[in-house]
Specification:
256 residues; 33% helix; 9 helices; six-stranded parallel sheet; alpha/beta
Length: 256
Amino acid sequence: MSVAANTLRPPSRTLMFMEGRALSELGAFVGALPLLSLAPRGDGHPVLVLPGLVASDVSTRPLRAFLKTRGYAVSGWRQGRNLGLRQGVQHAMVDLVHELHDTYGQKVSLVGWSLGGLYARQLAKMMPGRVRSVITLGSPFAAGPKATNAWRVYEMASGRRADEEDSRFGGSLASAPPVPTTAIFSRTDGICAWQGCMEKTSAQSESIEVESSHCGMGHHPAAVYAVADRLAQAEGQWKPFDRSGWRSLVYPDPAR
């Protein structure tokens, strides 16, 4: 991890207090469903959605329900609350990816919110032959652990040090997975430093910026549409997100 990454500071207290807007973002999601129904439909491949720290599949239910309407075979992570990499968590996720791949006979797309996005990246590095794409939502893979306002919660929940990386779980967090990867982030994220949630642009990796809270990103209308747009791409035909036309009004230029 670079020196710059280790010197990133967590979001300000002002941004952290603004996380309460996640509730209004859920209301905006419900109100935007008629417009979101215009998002492209998928090809039915399996999608695994992984929740953030101390959250469960309940938190990802709106996103999963919407993706089902777009034609995907969607699964939650089925492990209750995400309390970090406790014993058995990694093996259960690996087993679930195998199960979904074998059941549907297609590669699995991984969508991870916050800590769930870190898991998604590492799983893709371990099983690139079974993973089709990775999408992260406010996941601080490119920052030091103390560039978030949640590192103490992680240590208490998991019983592990926040800066402890397990080489057996995909290696370095910052390195991009060997599959098409999209990092969705927000400069008004009140939990994670936004700079640490951006992916380096390459032939199969990108960042998409939305104007969202951290705790509401998984159901923010702009983030949900971006997830659906990315998942709808045909396997082997990945292209960067198109910000032209009306999208330029919703999605700021992440390179500005």
